[in-house]
Write the structure tokens for this entry.
Amino acid sequence: MTRLTMMLAGAGVASGLMVGTAPAARTSAVQMQVAGVAAAPGLDMRGSTGNPLAADSSILVQGGSLRTWSYRSPSVEQVQVVLSTEGRPLDADIELWQGPDNTPCKMRVYVENGQLRPFSAVVETPRGPNTIAIRNIGQIEFPLAANVVADNVDSPSAECLDTRMTIQGGALRTYPFDPSVDSVQVMLKTDGRPLNARIELLQGPNNNKQVIELYTEDGLDRPFFCILETPGSGNVVRVVNTAPVEFPMTAGVVPNSINQQMSYDAVLGGDVVLGGDAGW
């Protein structure tokens, strides 16, 4: 009888300990979740590796691999994607995933030198949750650094919005720029129809330095905006509407930043010698 009483008492103590510890474990879990939300309210900036990303951090994407960034909050309406390399070519696929088997925006990006001309574009992400998927389709010898942020996103200037011109389906338009222009803004938009376009940065005849093949299911709800780096001289931006004639679009291409020192040297003549006999 005494042995049975001791067994029941022991079981009661054990069950009391279990009951006492369970709420504490649940409370600590809730506290951790609230602390995480307080640190980044409504924003889940995690790559496919599961490591939290800082606003200025990049993830190395090896050739042939895929990384994803998920944003669970519907308050995130646009994100900026920045891709670069250490000087090697850049070849990547960028997709926006919204729900199962739904890809409202995707683009193929090629850059001859990812250090001299890093890729930077803004992807519209209304009505979350959304996921940005970046796949490095280059060889394993060509890794790239990818960064996706939702704060301090670039936006088109008033000049870029006011100078948009219509490009009919199947047509193209070229925009040459002065050597003093260091970067260019490109804004593409439709009246609500699908957007299919190819953006090329050329430096010389048939010399593609950067190519972007773009698809957006709704060019009004999800317009495309990017900034192209244009170092050197002879830069021409060519925008091609690859959609049928029933799907026109508007394009605005204007300078983003200008090298004032180069402009000053051009006015003074710099160190350029014409004719080969100047100063003799």
Q: What stands out?
A: The domain at 45-102+112-152 is CATH 2.60.120.680 (Jelly Rolls). The chain has a mean pLDDT of 80. Residues 2-39 form the longest helix (38 residues).
